[in-house]
Amino acid sequence: MWSILLWATFLFVGSTSAARDGCTWTPGVPNSVLSGSHKRYFERGSVERCKKYCEKSRGFFCRSFEYSTKRSACFLQDVDSFDKRIITREKYHGYTHYEHVCENDPRSREGCPFIGPISNRFIKGNNLFIIRNVSSPEECMARCKSEPNFHCRSFDYQKPGRQCNLAIVDREKHVLTSSSALDYYERTCKRKSLIAPCKYDIKNIKLFQRMGAVLVGGKIQLSTWESAVGGLTI
Question: Which UniProt keywords are listed (predicted)?
Fold first, then answer.
């Protein structure tokens, strides 16, 4: 433990309180932790000192930490609410979760529109929060945008039960699965319209029409095209 404390003292001495360029610290979420394990642990610290430890971390890029008031300790992590959900429970009383938020984070979907529906498709096994008895998919979109405990990237809308399944993942790393009860929506800035790529418009247009794709202005509408090809990622 002394080696850890000596290393921490060396790290702290002479450091400034300024965050990384273009980054700020969140106010902190009380009685909360981020699901997962920490990368490094320091005792006898304060919140401000823990911020410095995180900013000056070596061997990994520190994105967040939990501070324990009871133990005066911080738990540094290389993940944040872009990766996992912040969990608030009474059993985490005395723990506060802090994150280093940076401008122009490539993971951010801030300001990006939703595309969808991609009919009869969903991402399997990645629901972080379920909202029941919603009025419409538009309500799901609003809840996804305002979700405070993780960065919501997509949701499945369950048509029979009017239910939203919010998720932190999208099609960059996950494929869509078929289901007649669900429609998929995604928040992204990568596509400007719901139009399929030209290589599919020209070469396979008749095939996709037979599979159920719909033409809009001479091009295949993306939502119906992806339903036809089984959610092929582009």
Answer: Signal
Residues with Cβ within 8 Å of residue 225, at least 6 apart in sequence: 196, 200, 208, 213
Question: Which residue type occupies 140?
Answer: C
Please list the alpha-helical segments (H only) found in 73-173. 137-146
Which residues, in sequence order, are bridge partners of residue 24? 101
Question: What is the dotted CATH code of the domain comprising 2-102?
Answer: 3.50.4.10
List pLDDT tens digits, range 119-158. Answer: 999 999 889 999 999 999 999 999 999 999 999 999 999 9
Boundaries of CATH 3.50.4.10 in the chain?
2-102, 109-190
Q: Using CA atoms, how far apart are residues 161 and 145, in angstroms rounded to an integer?
A: 21
For residue 97, the cross-strand partners are 29, 66
Q: What is the pLDDT of residues 187-230, one digit of tens each?
A: 998 754 444 443 444 445 555 555 555 555 555 554 554 554 44
Instruction: Write the CB contacts of 168 (distance below 8 Å, at least 6 apart in sequence).
Output: 82, 83, 84, 85, 126, 128, 150, 151, 152, 153
Superfamily name and number for 109-190:
Hepatocyte Growth Factor (3.50.4.10)
Query: How far is it, in rounded angstroms, from Cα 54 to Cα 12?
Result: 10
Q: Can you say how many angstroms the Cα of residue 167 is from the centroid of all Cα atoms in its chain? A: 7
Tell me the pTM: 0.68
d(CA 23, CA 37): 23
